[in-house]
From TrEMBL:
Low complexity: compositionally biased ranges: 33-46
Record-linked InterPro entries: Ferric-bd
Signal peptide (UniProt feature, chain positions): 1-19
Name of one Pfam family that matches: SBP_bac_6
Biased composition, class Acidic residues, residue ranges: 47-59
PROSITE patterns reported in the protein's UniProt record: PROKAR_LIPOPROTEIN (PS51257)
Record region (Disordered): 25-66
Name of the molecule in the record: Ferric iron ABC transporter, iron-binding protein
PANTHER family found in the cross-reference section: SLL0237 PROTEIN, THIAMINE-BINDING PERIPLASMIC PROTEIN-RELATED
Gene source species: uncultured Rubrobacteraceae bacterium
Length: 383
């Protein structure tokens, strides 16, 4: 029976960014030393299992037959959304999975602290920038799955330390009873126009996708533009809510006509028969496109069940693994030409139907900390 461990740690925002974006300096590298972080004992709330007074030596797994093996997966995806993939994998392989769910920064911190004796075998995250940072610290194994060959290069690390599995896009959602689709904004940058005064909501900077979106703006448009854009949004009456789901729900209820959120939150509102529509911003000929953010999977460096971990990565990238992933929230496969899952919602596009910028996630990982320094006070919920 699979054991499920819920991650319950909530870190302060500074610790979140350091864990997601910081790298540890090598001795004599001239790089600033990493800031002190909480100990593993502080980061994990569940008690440690009692040590076996006479432990058996751990058997080495064979790649031919892994049935009965064990696997520990750290997942930054919500548990109820991750379970269908885990269930399918267990059924397919006979490998027992222990699933620990938590926020990206919490799990990244644990992987850093457990470097000498890793507990996790697989890291599945919604934060590609954080995965990039862990890879640069040598905490993720370079593994190029044979099922990853068709994943576009922009959605996987060149060294194989992380691979994009499915994608989500950064969209505008509108309430069609308050904004006619023909009058909906076509660009994120239109939202500072006075005609949209007091009509826009977005999530706080505690949301990883908000930081990633702003890091992309910062690296493509510069600090001055990015800071002024957010200040202009706020001056135009934009509301800052705690989470992306709060934004979509406020739009669905008609409390706010327009929201900036991830596309899959629109799916829930649509399934509830709320009057909403999805806008893919900046799709014109000279526009930058709609940001697409991958969910990624990695083998943890030093994993105790390495063969099983690689098998999990292969499975997540296979058609059998993609189905339970894409069905849950209508996130889309990253391989062009692959159809959406069985829960396709009206208005959601496949990856090859979205004009998108090519993104360097290494660059974004480095920019996230600066984003918080510049815009943290502006994008605090309720401010």
């Amino acid at each position: 029976m699979r054991r499920t461990i819920l991650g319950t740690l909530y870190l302060m925002l500074a610790a979140i960014v350091l864990a997601a974006c910081g790298t540890q300096a090598a001795p004599g590298s001239g790089t600033d030393a990493a800031q002190p972080t909480p100990t593993a004992a502080q980061a994990v709330t569940e008690p440690e299992p009692e040590a076996d007074p006479d432990p058996e030596p751990e058997a080495t797994e064979g790649s031919a037959n892994l049935e009965g093996a064990e696997l520990v997966v750290y997942s930054a995806r919500k548990e109820d959304l991750m379970k269908p993939l885990v269930d399918a994998f267990e059924k397919e392989t006979g490998i027992e999975v222990t699933l620990k769910s938590g926020k990206p920064a919490e799990l990244q911190l644990l992987i850093q602290q457990e470097k000498a004796d890793p507990r996790a075998d697989v890291y599945f995250t919604t934060d590609a920038g954080g995965a990039q940072s862990l890879g640069e610290q040598g905490l993720l194994e370079a593994y190029k799955s044979p099922n990853a060959t068709k994943v576009p290069a922009e959605f996987k690390a060149a060294d194989g330390t992380w691979t994009g599995v499915i994608g989500r896009s950064r969209n505008i959602i509108i309430n069609t009873q308050r904004v006619k689709p023909a009058n909906a904004p076509k660009s994120m940058f239109e939202l500072t126009d006075p005609k949209y005064k007091d009509q826009v909501a977005l999530a706080s900077i505690e949301e990883g996708s908000v930081r990633l979106w702003l890091a992309w703006l910062l690296t493509t448009r510069g600090e001055d533009f990015t800071v002024q854009y957010i200040k202009d949004l706020k001056a135009n009456g934009a509301k800052v809510l705690a989470e992306n789901s709060d934004v979509a729900q406020a739009v669905g209820r008609g409390e706010v006509p327009i929201g900036i959120t991830n596309h899959y939150y629109y799916v829930f509102e649509k399934r509830d028969n709320n009057p909403v529509a999805l806008v893919y911003p900046d799709q014109g000929g000279n526009d930058p496109g709609t940001l697409v953010m991958p969910l990624t999977v990695s083998v943890v460096e030093g994993a105790k069940h390495e063969d099983a971990a690689k098998k999990f990565v292969d499975f997540a990238l296979s058609p059998a693994g993609q189905e339970p992933l894409t069905t849950q929230e209508n996130e889309f496969p990253l391989v062009p030409g692959v159809a959406l899952g069985s829960a396709k919602a009206e208005g959601v596009r496949t990856i090859d139907e979205i004009k998108r910028p090519k993104v360097d996630f290494k660059e974004l990982a480095e920019a996230e900390k600066r984003v918080v320094e510049l815009l943290g006070p502006e994008l605090t919920a309720g401010e």
